[in-house]
Amino acid sequence: MTLAVSSCLLGEHIRFDGGHKRDRFITDELSAFADFTPFCPEHLAFGTPRPSVRLVRIDDALRVQSNKSGEDLTDTLLQSSDSELEKLASKPLCGIIFKSKSPSCGMKSAKLYLENGYCEGKEDGVFMHICRERFPLLPMEEEGRLEDAWLRENFVMQIFAYDAYERFKATNPSIGNWEMWSPTGATIRWRLCWGYTNWDLKPLFHEKVPSNGPATS
Predict the structure, then answer these.
(1) Is there a contact between 163 and 94 (Cβ–Cβ < 8 Å)?
(2) One-character DSSP codes across 79-120
(3) Is residue 82 within 8 Å of residue 104, measured between CB atoms?
(4) Residue from 156, 107, 100, 163 nearest 131 by CA
(5) Could you read off the pLDDT of 107-143 as tens digits, one per residue?
(6) DSSP β-bridge partners for residue 188
(7) Angle at 45 between CA 138 and CA 79, to 5 degrees
(8) Which residues pair with 53 in a beta bridge?
(9) What is the rounded CA–CA span in Å between residue 105 and residue 214?
(10) Residue 146, C-beta contacts closer than 8 angstroms, at least 6 positions apart
(11) Is the pTM of this model over 0.70?
(12) Nearest residue to 130 via CA among 156, 148, 104, 150
């Protein structure tokens, strides 16, 4: 299967300070079952290293500003996000893993500021938001939430089920290939583990989460 993953989580030195945030669950364990397509709209837009950015609410609209100069960088980041979105749309993705707390990739974890500098709360990052709109059924998570054993297991089940369903559809199944069951006839049941009956997925469900490697410049 193919997963899209924030590039810094794969160990690429493309964070704003030239460092990375390699996540060992992704690179050391999940990599045994999936290929990765990296993405980073901020690196594409501004290069590395670069001034950090933040989300700011201005007149009920969310904008992206440079922390250093206050320059409005919204349009530039939206343009690079659209480019990354089209790249991902061309891949047979079964899920996406985002970098937590990022103003481009956070899942309701990116800090949202008011014009006076106070933090109002948390919101989706710019790229995360458009991915939700473009891929409403695709499993998505951020690496911070995957440190929770239950959320990790839930995400792993989702991506394998999604992949199994897509491969099942590719066989052009007839109605006889589907199991129909429901007192009202409204439920379709199918084998979520189709094609994975001989795979050992236990390594993906460790309760103890391996520590991530330090970000280095």
Answers:
(1) yes
(2) HHHHHHHHHHHTS-EEEEEEPTT-TTT-SS-EEEE-TTS-EE
(3) no
(4) 107
(5) 999 999 999 999 999 999 999 999 999 999 999 999 9
(6) 180
(7) 60
(8) 66
(9) 20
(10) 23, 25, 97, 152, 155, 209
(11) yes
(12) 104
**Own/partner pairs for 105-111, CB < 8 Å, 24+ apart?**
105/6, 105/41, 105/142, 106/142, 107/140, 107/141, 107/142, 107/145, 109/142, 109/144, 110/55, 111/54, 111/55
Q: Strands 61-66 and 53-58, how do they pair?
A: antiparallel
How far apart (Å, rounded) are the C-alpha atoms in residues 150 and 11? 25
CB distance 137 to 127 below 8 Å: no
H-helix segments, 114-200? 126-134, 149-169
Sign, Cα dihedral of 115, 116, 117, 123:
negative
Find all residues with CB under 8 Å of 213, minimum gap 6, and list them: 11, 20, 22, 24
Question: Each residue of 149-207: pLDDT tens digit?
Answer: 999 999 999 999 999 888 888 888 766 555 543 334 333 333 444 444 445 555 555 55
Determine the residue type at 24.
R
Is-contact 20 56, C-beta < 8 A? no
